[in-house]
Please model this.
Amino acid sequence: MAMVFSPRISRRIFVQSTSLAAAGAVTCHLGFPTAIATSPILRPLKEFGYGDVTLTSDLHEKQLHDTHTVLMELSEDSLLKPFRQMAGQPSPGADLGGWYHYDPDYDPNTVDVGFAPAATFGQWVSALARTYAITGSPAIRDKVLRLNRLYAQTISGDFYEKNRFRAYCYDKLVCGLIDSHQYAGDPDAFSILERTTATALPHLPGKAVEHGRRWRQNPAEGYTWDESYTISENLFLAYQRGAGDRYCSLGTQYLDDEYYDPLADGRNVLAGRHAYSYVNSLCSAMQAYMTLGSAKHLRAASNAFEMLTAQSFATGGWGPDELLRAPDSGEIAASLTGTHSSFETPCGS
Model:
């Protein structure tokens, strides 16, 4: 697989982008505690745009094409159905089924059909926006804008009241909207984001809540599995992309320092944590560094990735059965004969 740079980027521009002088961190000045100190940070690399790089790999191109085809063919009524149902609106279209199905009588003590209605909508919009950035297809952009406007008609506090994954769904909606702004040029994305945020915040915890910890009135274990400790990443990105200072403030508010503080001190507290979401959460720590210049959060992420590498498989996978394991315990080796389930790469969402 070869990587080819677009002719729009000259060698001179590339060299300049990879040798930027030290610059002040992109910081929001909202009276944060002195524990999050700002300092100049090096930005040695500049991210390429999706349309600036081509992967000359038939396998990767086929995967992109196949995924794009599926997303473009999905019924918009079906995609919006859970939102409309939970808002008490007319809900035409076929039910997508699976975890995406909305069942008001769902047993929250099970992991079955109806487990997470609408949880992936923002990710699908994000995928379409990024595909538009690669291809420039007007049909893709039209679908992104259409989905955002249809979603905007469903915004309701009932969606969060009836949803076990309030923070998770809000996070993915933020991702879809900021990517729509960034990659598809949706002029309404930020105004829809503002409405989404104003509606969601009264239904979210006021800070990051650890996985498995009860914070709302519902006895079901499944209602403790929300992931408020991952949402800072996209909130900081929203701020960086111009959505407003409140997103920098919110990103700071939801930093999971109960998790990051010991990591910054070099203490391994990974054991027993959910393997996917707590690794994703390290992206929030990195964004705290990129946005606020917080050296503590950089140390937390750097130390944690070293700890994660020490318990990863030769394939790059980690987290057997969705759990991070105690160091030097033999649990990783034992898992080779007990499960085939693991994650492959850390990623932001």
